[in-house]
Amino acid sequence: MDLLRSEPMQLVQLIIPIEAAHRTISYLGDLGLFQFKDLNAEKSPFQRTYAAQLKRCGEMARKLRFFRDQMTKAGLSPPAWCSRSDGIDLDSLEVKLGELEAELIEMNANHDKLKHGYSELLEYKLVLQKAGEFFHSAQSSAAAQQKAVDAQYSTEGSIDSPLLLEQEMVTDPSKQVKLGYVSGLVLREKAMAFERILFRATRGNVFLRQSVVEELVIDPASGEEVEKNVFVVFFSGERAKNKITKICEAFGANLYPFKEDLGKQFQMITEVTGRLEELKTTIDVGLAHHSNLLQTIGYQFEHWNILAKKEKSIYHTLNMLSIDVSKKCLVAEGWCPVFATNQIQNTLQRAMIDSNALVGPIFHVLKTKESPPTYFRTNKFTSAFQEIVDAYGVAKYQEANPGVYTIITFPFLFAVMFGDWGHGICLSLATLYFIIREKKFSSQKLGDITEMTFGGRYVILMMALFSIYTGLIYNEFFSVPFELFGPSAYACRDLTCRDASTEGLVKVGPTYPFGVDPKWHGTRSELPFLNSLKMKMSILLGVAQMNLGIILSYFNAKFFQNEINIWYQFLPQMIFLNSLFGYLSLLIIVKWCTGSQADLYHVMIYMFLSPTDDLGENQLFVGQKFLQILLLLSALVAVPWMLFPKPFLLKKQDQERHQGQSYALLHNSDDPLEMEPDHKSNSHEEFEFTEVFVHQLIHTIEFVLGAVSNTASYLRLWALSLAHSELSSVFYDKVLLLAWGFNNVIILIVGVVVFVCATVGVLLVMETLSAFLHALRLHWVEFQNKFYEGNGCKFQPFSFAQLKDDDE
Asked: Where, by residue number, does the polypeptide cross the bilayer (predicted)?
């Protein structure tokens, strides 16, 4: 069928030989036109037949996620194309993924071990260099001071000496105290606290020297680049050494051995440098091998990923099927469109042939009263409009689809609020960029906002085209009017007419053929004139769209053969709405055509307050008073017409159904499987008259009050159109023209930049979003609540088409 009604659906039973089950489900997934029902809903996931296979698929998915993480860390990304490994099955893939995972884990462990050793050797080399500088400077200072001591020793007898040599100079060599020392690296951010704790723990009986390492150091424990200091702590005694070692462990300081002898220091530095070069070469070779392995995985990754997802979805679907008592076939039930019957049967036959099954599958249509899912066949143009409707609620099966009318009404109502053909051209150019490059964008992963914009590119294009149309009617190009369709019908009577009012303008030619005459712009009467025009136009558009919604409720009732809704819902709603607001629309049109000065506010107010009074100068046509009284009485009659008959008629229908006066036909069938779906639907729910009456009362009150509030809600078309026009005018007059008036190039450039930024940021982005949301509300609330139930269930066929976009 067309987009107005959803596709006819049928409940189907498939009996599939167990040897052809996997291939059958796979082929149906490629077809994507069959929605399976879960026949094992009472079973837990672990009690189902293919739980073990699902567990295997989950384990393969985990390994593939591990490969993706490894490629991301290495800066690689799987190519969009992949080298297909034709003929690979689930078992072969599982073995291959296991081998690759084990190899990668082993390579990562070896790399971490080598990296840890390399980082420790780098730190050791820094300790050797920095601590060697400490001892070298201390020895140089000691040698210089020793000469001074030798020169003054005979006269003075004693002198202060350097820290390390003091005892050697002033005491007997046999009584000298040997100082110990500990060297290592500590985090620079902990250096001050480290020094303070050492001083307190040893009561000041240590000497600490620190040197800042200029470059970042890779910490062996964490593998991160950090700032560190090299330190040497001098102490005396084993107790002090134990305390210092524990404090170093607490602060995460790495300790390294150090020899005081210069020759041994040089030898150790040489050995460490050689080992660093060897480790660097080994690490580079390992990284190259690791990168080659990841590139090999990357060429096949997408194919493996899709294959694993397909297998998982196939076994998940197989778990929804029930096994026959003989365990030789599987029984499936599900929904499919009627037009897909031949395609599904051909798919079943092909699966039987390819799997060499001895018995063919059985395709059997079941009779049921269960409500089928809703399925609309859409394309890339209509899908976005259908998504707008589905966001409110999925249509009931074969209910009138608002998406058909949304294709036109949604962008048109948006354009009424966004009317400026300059802005419309900018919006259409931006959208055409997405449409021209849609093949490239559809194969890329876009950001959230960009993806949303790309998905609605055809909606935005329609909005832009209608904005150009309404902009031509408003005669606004970035708020500037143009005489596109001929000269203006008005001219100034004298030079001061522009500053006075439109009374200074005289008509010198024929009426401007299309849209608003450009002379209206810039006059004192522009705002009152456009206010009146757009307000009345909003009411006309709103009443027309609400009437369309009520008319669609008639077609729904007629399609579902619901006579009660036609006579006691559609008719009184049409009478009530048009007796009040349809009459207001008629007055607006008559006033436009006749040029009358009648006050419509006065007419509508006193239609209720004093319907029998004479209209006087507010009379627009002969017989208006009688017509008003007739319409007012019709509106009053329509309210009880909506409220009372329907609940009583529904109660009467229910009584007749249970007195045997309205039996439904029974379908004879010997197949118990065919009768099973009807079992639940035959159960009767007791008719609650009070509940039905209260529901009808709420519905009546909602419609009566909604007729007023919904009509007022359409005035947002006027308000947003006026706001858009005034904002555009302010940006043009107060930014662009103001900058132009300074006759300065720099100010002009700044003014143009500010004008462009304000136009794009405010008018083309914020105003577009605002008008979009208001148009969305008018369709969801004011239009769709007149006829659209939106309580259906969307058709969700088993399909492989969406597997590529799924994120596990």
From this structure: 412-436, 457-474, 537-555, 567-590, 626-644, 745-766
